[in-house]
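lol ok so funny story. i was supposed to be doing the assay writeup but got distracted and ended up predicting the structure for this chain instead. priorities right. anyway since i did it might as well share w the group, maybe its usefull for someone
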Amino acid sequence: PMILVEPDTPGVTVERWVPVFGYDDAPHGHAEVVFDNVRVPASNMLLGEGRGFEIAQGRLGPGRIHHCMRVIGVAERALELMCKRAMSRVAFGKKLSEHGIWSERIADARINIEMARLLTLKAAHMMDTVGNKVARMEIAMIKVAAPNIALQIIDDAIQVYGGCGVTEDVGLARAWAHTRILRIADGPDEVHRNQIARLELKKHM
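and the output, tada:
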């Protein structure tokens, strides 16, 4: 079952807040919590006994889509910063944007953002029209694709800023850390890739 437990319930102790990639988001981040003989009323149970997995699964599809929508926005911001830096920084007598490698990276970033956006829209549309179960392949695909695409764009943006890119001055380091978590949260890439492969193989049996 899924049960609501108030943080001030006797027996609940927050042992410590756990930084992720060095970032401490307390009191809203991750924590190590001890439950010692905690008792709550039966009315704190959601939906009923034996329905916890159902609740968890019910939010996973929409939750994964939501993660992807947010991470596409992060990728857009990283691309914007990359372009501004490439147009303002001069190396070897030319703006970085005039060097071929940065033109390629900027172009690839735009292409990949649009691919991720379209697949996210398709997955969201299918979830709304035919449900999570039918849309599970599209949801799995975008859950793998969007964070990985965003991470590459953020990484390229960090690179164009050089040493400044890994500081807190431009926000890219934090963006990378938060986006990297999404390759694990709500199911790791490996699980989603296995599901995609199984569903694809079924088409050819």
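Helices lie at 52-88, 100-129, 136-161, 172-181, 189-202. The first strand starts at residue 2 and ends at 3.
back to the writeup now i swear
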